[in-house]
Design a protein that fits this description.
Elements lengths: L2 H15 L5 E6 L7 H16 L4 E6 L7 H10 L4 E2 L26 H8 L2 H8 L6 E16 L13 E4 L3 H9 L3 E4 L5 H7 L4 E4 L1 H6 L8 E17 H5 L3 H36 L3 E3 L3 H17 L1 H4 L1 H11 L7
Helix pairs in contact: 2-10, 6-11
The site of (2S)-2-hydroxybutanedioic acid (LMR) has 10 residues, from loops.
Length: about 325
């Protein structure tokens, strides 16, 4: 990242904290504005302005306009931006590997199970681990469950063999692709469309809202609704900035986060359903719903990821989640 870009950001945040000046919060993210995260961050910005009566102005920068996935975390830690909502997978590279537990395939059957973790004590304990990184964890926002896409049909496990799949930077996701006989390729989100278009990778995984708003359906002939893993976000702030806010303003912003969280988690499924309908309508991608047997075969093929990667996220954490969700990879 350019030093001048960072310096400018730092200067701006110092200026914003000067007495009585309007506080500017730069909120950067990598997806389109027309997604669950995009809409929730816009809503947060609106409510932050209203609740603080204009003392805070939240500027939302979608679509990797300011920073790509990897750069944005560094920018937050340095204070060049004040808030982000990266996917949970992106905390592994930050050194908080436990978050990669959310990448474990088929760990959650539905959102109710998931919310027992993200909205309960396990989620809170995970968030607290970010403090040591200078990051204040504020809330979990859903996107939804990921599906696989490629230019060739993905019906049986054998169909994944030898294919290159773009993944986020996560050791668990790497292992997931390997378990299917595929080749994992880590890549920034903003580069996926082009990589699919030029054939640098054959396929990818994402919730449909991300697939559609990045126009990946134009460069992926086949989409199989696998719902094999979860993609969600942590809304985070630069800890020093957040802790340094006047207490009343911080309280109002916490309220705005709370309201935006309710919205995010309410619209996530609707947005993904609408995106799927739009993909079907575009007619460029064949949408395949796997049979019960095909989905079970995929689940079985991915079960070893749970055994292999347990130590990375911590066996205790994994067991505590199994206890809540009832998932047992050894029974598959
Ligand atoms: C991805 O990189 O695929 C996602 O994390 C993008 C996002 O933020 O939803």
């Amino acid at each position: 990242m350019k030093a001048s870009k960072l310096l400018l950001g730092l200067l701006l945040s110092c200026a914003a904290l000067a007495a009585n000046a309007q506080i500017i919060i730069k909120f950067s993210h990598v997806v389109a504005a027309d997604t669950p995260k995009g809409k929730a961050s816009e809503f947060f910005a609106k409510r932050a302005g209203e609740l603080t009566k204009g003392r805070v102005k939240v500027e939302v920068y979608p679509n990797s306009q300011l920073y790509k996935d990897k750069e944005e975390m560094e920018a937050l830690q340095l204070g060049a931006v004040q808030m982000l909502a990266p996917s949970l997978a992106k905390f592994g590279p930050l050194g908080v590997k436990e978050f990669e537990v959310f990448d474990f395939p088929f760990l959650f059957d539905n959102t109710a199970e998931l919310h027992r973790i993200t909205q309960g004590p396990i989620g809170a304990a995970l968030m607290a681990k970010l403090d040591a990184k200078g990051v204040k964890g504020l809330a979990y926002w859903d996107n939804g469950f990921k599906s696989f896409s490629a230019n060739t049909p993905l019906k049986t496990v054998a169909d994944y063999k030898g294919k290159k799949f773009r993944i986020q930077s996560s050791k668990v996701l790497e292992e997931q692709i390997r378990a299917l006989g595929g080749i994992p390729q880590m890549m920034a989100f903003s580069e996926v469309y082009q990589a699919l278009q030029t054939g640098v990778v054959d396929g990818t995984e994402n919730p449909i809202s991300n697939l559609y708003t990045q126009k990946m359906n134009e460069v992926q002939k086949h989409l199989t609704i696998t719902d094999h893993g979860y993609l969600g976000y942590a809304v985070i702030a630069n800890k020093k900035f957040w802790d340094g806010l006047p207490a009343d303003v911080r309280g109002q912003l916490e309220q705005a986060v709370k309201e935006a969280t309710l919205l995010a988690n309410k619209i996530a499924q609707e947005e993904n359903d609408a995106a799927l309908a739009a993909v079907r309508k575009s007619g460029k991608t064949t949408v395949y719903i796997p049979t019960k047997e095909e989905r079970l075969a995929l689940k079985k093929a991915l079960a070893p990821v749970h055994i292999k990667m347990a130590d990375r996220v911590g066996k205790e954490l994994l067991q505590s989640i199994y206890k809540e969700t009832g998932f047992d990879p050894s029974k598959l």
